[in-house]
Amino acid sequence: MKSSSHRQERVLFLLLLGFEVLHLFFLILSRRLPLGHDGFFYFYMQYFFLNDVAINKEIPLWIPYVSHGISASWFYIIQGVFGPLAEVFLLTGRLFSSVNFLDIFHYGIFVDRLLLLTGVWLLSQRYFTSAFTRFFVASCVMASTVTMTTFYFTLHLYFAIPLMLYFGHAFLDTRRWRYFFLACNLFMIQMIGNIAYFIPVISLTAFLYFLFYALDQPLEFLGKIKNLRWGISSAAGITGGLLSLGILGALLLASKDPAWLNPGYGRNSDGTASLNIFLTYAGNMDFHKWLELLLRLSPSLDFTVYMGFLALPLVLFGILYSQNRNRYPILLTALILLFFSMGTWVSVFFYYTWPMMKFYRHLGLMVPLIKLFLLFLAGFGFERILVQRDTWQGTRKISYACLVSGALLVMVSIILIHISAHGQEASRTIVNFMTVDTSQTPSTFDPHTVSYRLKEASCYALLTGLFFIFLPLISFKKSAAAIILGVLIVNTADIYGYYCTEINERSFALNKDKYKITAFSPMPYTYRRLVDAPNPREIIISSPIKFLSLYSTTNAFLFQDALATRFRTLGHLKPLYDMMSAFGPRMVENPAFLKIAGSSADKIQFFKQACFDGDDKQLASYLGSPKYKGNLLFVSGKQTNSTLPCSTQIDLSANDRIKATYQIVKFTPNILELSVNVPSSKPIWMMYADVWHQGWKAQINGQAVPILKADMAYKTVLLAPGKNTVTFAFTAPGMIFLEHVIAVNALGWLIILLYLVVGIQRRGLTLI
């Protein structure tokens, strides 16, 4: 058993791949939807982007349903489109417009998980001689990666890291620069559609790993660096790598909208977090979160920790008794990240020294990334204790360690079964000890559910404990493979049983009517913003989603242009903020605000004249005056010949509104086209209650015209007498170009990923 046969390698990898495929079919056939929180956020934002591609054949740059209109560029980075498959759909989505988006969504997550599985398996080939060990590590990583309520910290924080490290080693081992390019390009893929502030964490992780690798084997590392080949291939590899990072940087810059205002939730105006916020935000700084390792249930929406009872003692065995030096870079990286996640001096050090780290603030939620490295350490323990069983049989210290580990697990089993007999008290104790808000948990910690799951945990803890107790007495000479296989079967049942249970608790099945809502659909134009407008799509966020946090961007999925949202606001543009500040906190009770905001009147409004005032303070005094009835149009921005300064004696109670017949010709997120007949012999002003932004361009009858800012927030144009065809179009050619480049790049990664998977099946070991 010193090395794995190709057949064994293929079969074990195929088993893991088979589970992913079967689970994909289950999610699709049962029509599972994320329960809420960030998982549902991922779902509906991706729906909005791809729906526009499928229906309108455009990449959306504007979201008209959120905060009276908001630019979409920020959402490209934060999570609007994520993963290689979703990026490819930006180019080809129109070809799949007949496929329900929920199915496409699950296919995309499958590709992301396949990238993780392939990376873990290939990186494991560097560390472990046995395919059994690789299966153990990969199964624990995949089954402990539980998504649905969030895809941030439970998947996209680390899903490309194993493959990145594999390509880094392949570059040093083979001196082929294409691996350098692939590692850099994969870093870009990891970040596209992810949280931007993950960049310092992911880059720090890769840096620490290779730093400790170099320090552990300095002569070997320096020798590999000295033997690098320089020439055309190196120039191409370095250029490609830098170009990949440059594209990521360009996308970050393009997505930065100076008009965007984020509520912050502890952030400074430039997006950074203070040291205090950095060290404390989101809590979960102590060891309470690791209690999940013994409970086999996860109360947190943002991360999962459980990785199987078998892995717990094997982590220590891997640290203490493995004879493989490759464990040191992994161990030291895990330790640094662990102390970093706890708000210690390590956190303070990297806050001040590591580039961009001041933008990060979720220290306590890094446990899934730490867990990834712990499972590789457990792999070293698995190989030492099981695969290399003959090398330590009779060694007292390892035998005693097995007995102690087994006894502790049996004790845990007894405690769990005792707690499970008191379901109500157990639920309350777990919630209090782990400081969990029960209103924000995937499971409401129903006493019967908690009791049942603790009994399951007790059973697996007992089986694992008994195995370790009897391990020193078991002879491996004739039946080593059978024993290891039996252990893997129990562990796989344990960890995948946990995974399936958690996924089911964090998602729910749609009936046929709700499933139709997730199909691609035309986006309707809303003539007015009503406070409580009926919306047939809202049925999908009824129970059980309504019990979890939802964001204001939910309206993008509902196609609901709301006057005010009952959901958590992620941000809005500065012009809207300025207007709301002028009206004050009770603006929704102000008839003038309701009128110009398109609630008591249409969003398309007409005025016989407008007055110009470039002083925002003066404009705010007009809008905030109790005399103002919402019947005058104030414009600002770049003054034209058609605007006159506002008179100091202006009558704020006057009425300059006129009626005009108009018809909406075309509406998409990026375009509004309408025809209007001007009834007078003089030019009039048309105001569109959609937020003004410099990216908007306007044409009237095919001629470009300036767009002025109306009432501090919206946009307005001057119409000539007679029939006018007015077109508003939002443009961002740089963003469109970058998205097409990234989509083509993502298509290449789908091909590479397929090649790697086929390579594992055909050759066992894979190098491109």
Structure explained in plain terms:
By secondary structure, the protein is an alpha+beta fold. The chain has a domain at 590-734. Helices cover 53% and strands 10% of the residues. Helix 5 packs across helix 8 (161-174), helix 10 runs antiparallel to helix 16 (327-341) and helix 20 (423-433) crosses helix 21.
Main traits of this protein?
alpha+beta
Task: Summarize, please.
The chain is built from 28 helices and 18 strands.
Helix fraction? 40-55%
Total strands: the figure is 18
Poorly predicted ranges (pLDDT <50, ≥5 residues)? none
Q: Roughly how many Å apart are the termini?
A: 27 Å
Overall average pLDDT? 87
Q: What spatial order of strands do you see in the largest sheet?
A: 7-13-17-16-9-8-10
Major β-sheet annotation? 7 strands, mixed
How large a portion of the residues is in β-strands, by DSSP E? 5-15%
Shape: elongated
Structural class: alpha+beta
CA gyration radius, whole angstroms: 29 Å
> Count the helices. How many?
28
Topology, element by element:
Elements: H1 6-29, E1 32-34, H2 37-56, E2 62-63, E3 70-71, H3 73-80, H4 84-92, H5 101-127, H6 131-143, H7 152-156, H8 161-174, H9 177-191, H10 198-216, H11 218-226, H12 232-255, E4 260-261, H13 275-280, H14 292-295, H15 311-321, H16 327-341, H17 345-353, H18 367-387, H19 396-420, H20 423-433, H21 447-470, H22 480-505, E5 507-509, H23 512-517, H24 554-558, E6 572-573, H25 574-583, H26 591-596, E7 604-607, E8 611-612, H27 616-624, E9 634-636, E10 644-645, E11 661-667, E12 671-678, E13 684-691, E14 696-700, E15 703-705, E16 708-710, E17 714-719, E18 722-730, H28 733-763
